[in-house]
C-alpha cells in the first residue's frame, strides 16, 4: 500500500477538519448569515468526505475485492473487510449523502444541518482516520 500517499491524504483530512473547527460559528443562525463561514465549512466538509472516500478506495484496491460502484459502497466494503465497524460505515455513508447535496444542490443546503455536522460529527472522520492508521 502507498503509505506516503495515504499519510498525505490523512494530513489533508486533518487540515480540513481544523478549518471547520476554526471557522464554525457558535450557532446555526450565525452560520446562516455568514457566507464566508458557509463556504469554508461546506468546502472543507465535502473535502473531508472526498478524502475519506479516496483513502478507502485506495485501501480496497489493495484487496481482492471489486471496486465500489458508489462512494457510499466504499464504506460498506471497508466494513466487510473488518477495517471499520457497521456504525461508522453508516455514518460515513450519511456524510457522502451530505457531500452530494452540498456539491449538487448548494442553494438548498440546510445550515442547521451543516452546523450540527460541524459541531457533532467531525469525530466520525477522526475515527475513520484512526482505523486507517491502525492498518500501517
Name the overall outline.
Answer: elongated
CATH superfamily: bsu32300-like
Number of domains: 1
Using the coordinates above, name the CATH class: Mainly Alpha
End-to-end distance, in Å?
9 Å
Task: Tell me the radius of gyration.
Answer: 15 Å
CATH topology-level fold name = Four Helix Bundle (Hemerythrin (Met), subunit A)
User: How many helical stretches?
Assistant: 7
Structural class: mainly alpha
Number of strands: 0
Uncertain segments are none
Could you report the average pLDDT, rounded to the nearest whole number?
A: 95
Helices and strands, in N-to-C order? Answer: HHHHHHH
Mind describing the biggest β-sheet?
none
- Gross CATH architecture: Up-down Bundle
Estimate the helix proportion, in percent: over 70%
Beta-strand fraction estimate: under 5%
What does this entry look like structurally?
By secondary structure, the protein is mainly alpha-helical. The protein has a single domain (3-133), classed as bsu32300-like (Four Helix Bundle (Hemerythrin (Met), subunit A)), CATH 1.20.120.580. It is built from seven helices and no strands. It has helices at 3-23, 28-33, 35-61, 71-80, 86-104, 111-120, 122-133. Helix 1 runs antiparallel to helix 3 (35-61) and helix 1 (3-23) packs antiparallel against helix 7. The model has no long low-confidence stretch (mean pLDDT 95).
